[in-house]
Every structure is written in structure tokens, then in C-alpha cells.
Amino acid sequence: MLISEALASAALIAVRDCMGVTAGERVLVVTDERMRAIGYALRAAALSLADEVLLVEMLPRRSNGEEPPSEVAALMKMADVVLCPTSKSLTHTDARRAASASGVRVATLPGVTEEIMVRCMNADYERIAERTLKLCAMLESSSVVRVRAPSGTDITLPVKGRKAYASTGLFRKKGESGNLPTGEAFLAPLEGLSNGVVVVDGSMAMIGMVSEPIRIEVEGGYATRITGGPSAEKLLALIEPHGKDARTVAEFGIGTNDKAVLSGLILEDEKVMGTIHIAFGDNKSMGGSVRVASHLDGLIKDPTVWFDDRIIMENGVFATQL
To answer: pTM for this one?
Structure first.
């Protein structure tokens, strides 16, 4: 398979710099037909560094968070490093969680394109890591997050005691995992306590850029009413098969990658600096208690964000140096 020089370079950064692959390690690439080109680029990069590289191709999953075949899950626990360029995200799966618990370093690349790989893998991940870790420390010392935005978002998210996760792009220690490309600080708000309105005016996972803003009313930690034209109808169709758990307020996150731009693909969009995202569905991967085969992030532009009484971001601009 022909791999462009730019994609080969981006794949090498992912494998060598972000995952820290070294000689003697076993690398597994999990992909599907739609993502085969990215899978082969990562395989080629890994072959230049590791002693053993295996690529396995599965059928595309139907939703973000749907489990891979049991055979793939077993292989994931046997590697030192796993890279998952797949059509649907394996981030919020028991297979990924089990691999991480076994000490495997895992990077998920759901829906990534060559353009996004080349653009975002060339970011300064040391700087992104510094910025992200600072935000996580502030999140963990806070009790409540509040978000307001010009499109109508106004929501309060209690977070006291929840661990914040830094997706820094540097997954070099045993058990570390996250997206590539990446750059976000995130956590799971406390179940059953979030209230307000989320208006998704950027992009929505599995939908892309919204045709018109999606208004999501939240009561007692669940999305109770979703309105807003064709994009809202698509979101409802994605959520309804999974029941009430798929309506759980699952995640609050802040983008920290200064190279990322709004592209309509949530993998990149949720990393854009100056935006926040709120997800609904599975939160078990980030310390919550809800396991459901759905995790859908909605992007909010130009937000003003408070951690308790401290303004962190005003109209999409960090209020403090990060």
C-alpha cells in the first residue's frame, strides 16, 4: 500500500514520540477496512522500531464504544503497545480498559484522516502536555464546573472528588492510554447532578458539523429533551437504541491542542483549543459508573468556563496563561 511521505512522518511521530515504542516491544495495530491506510502507515512506522508488529483487521463497529471481537480483545492484552485506527471509537470499551489494566499502552484513533494525522501529529506535545496537566490539577481541586456560551449553553456540572484525565499525547508509561492526535483535559461529572442546557454549535460525534445547533436540556444528570432540526433527529436516532444510560452526562472536556481546527470529525474537534465538549453515554473509562455502548461528544464554541468561582476561559480564550 502506497503511503505518502507526510503520513509516514506523522505515523512515526505517533509511534516513536507519543507511544515511545522501543526495540524488544510487541506492537498491535487494530483497524478495519475503512481505516486500512492509516493502519498500514502505523504498522510501517512500528516495524522500524519494534521487534514484533501484528496488524489485525476487524469488521467496522456499529457505534462508538461497541466491543471488538473477543479474539481482538485477547490480543490487545498481550501486546506492549496497541494502536487502534478504527471507524468507531474503541476508547470506551471493556477491551481497551482491560488492556490498559494489564499495563498495555493504548492509543485510539477513531475515524482519523490523513489530513488530520499530518496536521495534528506535528503539534508540540510537550507543550500540550504541560497545558493539559495544569488544567487537570485545577479541575481536581474544583467542586463545580459551569459553562455558558453565546449559542445558549448554560449548564452546571458538579465534579467534586472526580479524577481528571490528561490526554497529553505522551503515552509512554505502562497502562497509559488516550486518543491520537490529542490534547484535552477531561473528567466525568458526578452522575445524577448536572442541570441546565447544552447547545452543540460545533460538531457532534458520528454526525459531523451540525446543520443547526442541537439544544439538549439536562435534568438530574440526563439529557431529557433534544431539539434542533435534522442534526438533533440524527442524535436521537443514535441515542435511543441504547436506552436511558446513553443520555447520561458522561464527560466534560477542554481542548488543548493549538494545531487542531474544526473539521467536523470529533476526534480533532474536541481537541481544538478554545472549545469545550460535553459527552453523553458511557463514563466508565473516566471513573464513572455507567457502561453503555455509546459515547457521543458535542462541541461548544466560544465558551466561558468557571471552575467554582474562577474564570478559566472567557469567550473561548483562556483567562490564565496555560
So the answer is: 0.86
As a whole number, mean pLDDT of residues 242-254 equals 98
**Alpha carbon distances (Å) from 69 to 56, 66, 86, 98, 294:** 11, 10, 13, 14, 17
What residues pair up with 156 in beta bridges, in sequence order? 146, 195
Give me the CATH topology for the region 5-120: Thermophilic metalloprotease-like (3.40.1830)
To 10 degrees, the CA torsion angle through 36, 37, 43, 47?
140
Residue 272 DSSP label: B
Smallest CA-to-CA distance from 108 within 261, 285, 267, 262 is with: 267
CA 140 to mean position of chain CA atoms: 19
Q: Say how far apart CA 53 and CA 68 lie, in whole Å.
A: 19
| 36-47 helix and 5-12 helix, angle to the nearest 10 degrees | 60
CB 45 within 8 A of CB 20: no
Task: For 249-278, write each residue's pLDDT tens digit.
Answer: 999 999 999 999 999 999 999 999 999 999
All CATH 3.40.1830.10 domain ranges in the chain, comma separated? 5-120
Query: What is residue 1's predicted lDDT score, i.e. its pLDDT?
Result: 74
Tell me the pLDDT tens digit for each residue of 273-312. Answer: 999 999 999 999 899 999 999 999 999 999 999 999 999 9
Is the pLDDT reported for residue 190 higher than 80? Answer: yes
Kind of pairing between the strands at 184-187 and 249-255: antiparallel
Question: CA 68, CA 70: separation in Å to the nearest integer?
Answer: 6
Q: What is the pLDDT of residues 96-124, one digit of tens each?
A: 999 999 999 999 999 999 999 999 998 89
Is 150 buried (19+), middle (13-18) or exposed (0-12) by CB count in 10 A?
middle
- 29 vs 54: CA distance, rounded Å: 6
